[in-house]
Every structure is written in C-alpha cells, then in structure tokens.
C-alpha cells in the first residue's frame, strides 16, 4: 500500500465551473503525477511534480493547472471545466523518482463527470 | 499519436486457453513496465523489463522485452477467471522524473 488517497472519488459538475481534485500521500515522496484515463487511450500524463512548488507539464496539460505547496499534497485544478474533461483521473507517486526505470504507484482514481 | 500500441484492445477467452498481448513502438525505451488494473482501482505493477531480450516469469505470466527495446509481450498460460482485467504496458524513456508513456490497454475477460 503506497498510502495514496484521492478525493473526491466521484464528482458531477457543470460546464464552466472550477473543480479541484486532491491527491494526498503519507510517505513524503518527491515525485507525483496526475493522469487521465479514457477508453482506448490508456493513461495520459497531465502534470507532474518533483518537489514542493516544482511542477511541469505533461502531454495533455491544456485546461489544467496544479499546485504543490506541501510534499504530501498535489492538487489538480480545472479552472473552467468542459465536457471533454469528463474522465477518470489518477494520481501516482514514484518512490525513487531520481533513479531510472522505477515503477509508479497509483491511487484509486476520481471519476469526474462534467455535464 | 499513441507512442505505444497495444494489441489486441479486447480479448475474451475461455478458462484454460493461452493468450498473448503485444506492446509495440517505434521508439526505444530504457524499460517497459506492465500493469494490471481492476475496476474502480488504480493500475498495479506486475513487472519491469530492462534489458533487451529479457524474459521474466510471474507464475503463469511470461513477459518479454524485444532485443531492440522497442516492443514487449505478455503471454498468459492456462488463463483463469482471476486474470480478468485491464493490462497496460508503459515505457520509460529514461527521462528525468520517470515519466511513463502508456499503451491504450488490453481488456481481458476470462470466462469460466
């Protein structure tokens, strides 16, 4: 158990509203990631972080922002949600991110529906 | 553009059958990771293959990394209903931060 908690687990909201998803870890690992999962696309990286206040964009970052003010929390924000952002969002950590070929450990996901 | 192509996308077989899932790319990866995901949960690592030509076995599952480190396969012998799930391959391009590129996944259903 990698000690990752995502909240909320489910959310339904309307187009144009702001949405923030939270990822909390209990083990103080530096590297954290946000992915979205859509049928046929596997997981696609949105943003990642390599420490407090150190974040960078992934392959599908448009429309998303992140913040990491504490090691244990990594927040993903949709400033103005659109229907195309309906998806399942996963947070992950890497326990030894500075080393190559290390696995990632995932939370159980947040199912987000934007109507 | 999907850098990692997984095939097949869907597979429905009877208990006891064998199957192979393929993960192909035109890019070289420093390693390939295989994950399994069950409904309502996040992916869980099965294995990491690092060396070209490497073969790893996990009970009835056999993983192979291509010699050129561009492709990988997962072979399941005598599949069981408990093998049902979504199988994902993910490539590590040896970039800073261990960012992974995922394939589209293979959804396997094993019927009793």
User: What is the molecular shape of chain A?
Assistant: globular
**How much of the residues of chain A is beta strand, in percent?**
over 45%
Strand content of chain B: over 45%
Number of domains of chain B: 1
- Biggest interface pair, counts: A-B, 29 and 28 residues
The DSSP helix count of chain B reads: 0
Q: Distance N terminus to C terminus of chain A?
A: 34 Å
Return residue spans of chain A where pLDDT drops below 50 for at least 5 consecutive residues. none
* CATH architectural name of chain A: Sandwich
Count of discrete structural domains of chain A: 1
Write the layout of secondary structure elements.
The complex is a heterodimer of chains A (115) and B (112).
Chain A: E1 4-7, E2 10-13, E3 19-25, E4 31-37, E5 43-51, E6 54-57, E7 64-70, E8 73-78, E9 87-94, E10 105-106, E11 110-114
Chain B: E1 5-7, E2 10-14, E3 19-24, E4 31-37, E5 44-49, E6 55-58, E7 61-65, E8 71-76, E9 85-92, E10 100-102, E11 106-111
Parallel strand pairs in B: 2-11
Antiparallel strand pairs in B: 1-3, 3-8, 4-5, 4-9, 6-7, 7-8, 9-10, 9-11
Structural summary, described in words:
The complex is a heterodimer of chains A (115) and B (112). Chain A is an all-beta fold and 115 residues long. Chain A has one domain (4-114): Immunoglobulins (Immunoglobulin-like). Helix content of chain A is 0%, strand content 55%. Chain A is built from no helices and eleven strands. In chain A, strands 2, 4, 5, 6, 9, 10 and 11 form a seven-stranded mixed sheet that branches. Chain A has a four-stranded antiparallel sheet with strand order 1-3-8-7, with no helix packed on it. In chain A, a hairpin with a 5-residue loop joins strand 4 (31-37) and strand 5 (43-51). Chain A is globular. The model of chain A has no long low-confidence stretch (mean pLDDT 93). Chain B has 112 residues and is an all-beta fold. Chain B has one domain (5-111): Immunoglobulins (Immunoglobulin-like, Sandwich). Chain B is 0% helix and 53% strand. Chain B has no helices and eleven strands. In chain B, strand 4 (31-37) and strand 5 form a beta hairpin. The radius of gyration of chain B is 13 Å and the shape is globular. Chain B starts with a strand and ends with a strand. The chains are: A mainly beta (115), B mainly beta (112). The interface between A and B is medium-sized, with 29 and 28 residues.
């Amino acid at each position: 158990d990698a000690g990752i908690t995502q909240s909320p687990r489910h959310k339904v909201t309307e187009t144009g509203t702001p949405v923030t998803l939270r990822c909390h870890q209990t083990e103080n690992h530096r590297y954290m990631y946000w992915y979205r999962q859509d049928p046929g696309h596997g997981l696609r990286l949105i943003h990642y972080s390599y420490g407090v206040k150190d974040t960078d964009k992934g392959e599908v970052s448009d429309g998303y922002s992140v913040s990491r003010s504490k090691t244990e929390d990594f927040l993903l924000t949709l400033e103005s949600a659109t229907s195309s952002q309906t998806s399942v969002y996963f947070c992950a950590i890497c326990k030894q991110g500075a080393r190559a070929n290390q696995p990632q450990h995932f939370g159980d996901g947040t199912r987000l529906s934007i109507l | 553009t999907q850098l990692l192509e997984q095939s097949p996308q869907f597979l429905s077989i009877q208990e006891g059958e064998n199957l192979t899932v393929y993960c192909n790319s035109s890019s070289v990866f420093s390693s390939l990771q295989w994950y399994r995901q069950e409904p309502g949960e996040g992916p869980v690592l099965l294995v990491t293959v690092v060396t070209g030509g490497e073969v790893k076995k996990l009970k009835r599952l056999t993983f192979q990394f291509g010699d050129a480190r561009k492709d990988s396969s997962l072979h399941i012998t005598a599949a069981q209903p408990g093998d049902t799930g979504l199988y994902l391959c993910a490539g590590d391009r040896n970039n800073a931060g261990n960012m992974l590129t995922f394939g589209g996944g293979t959804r396997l259903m094993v019927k009793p």
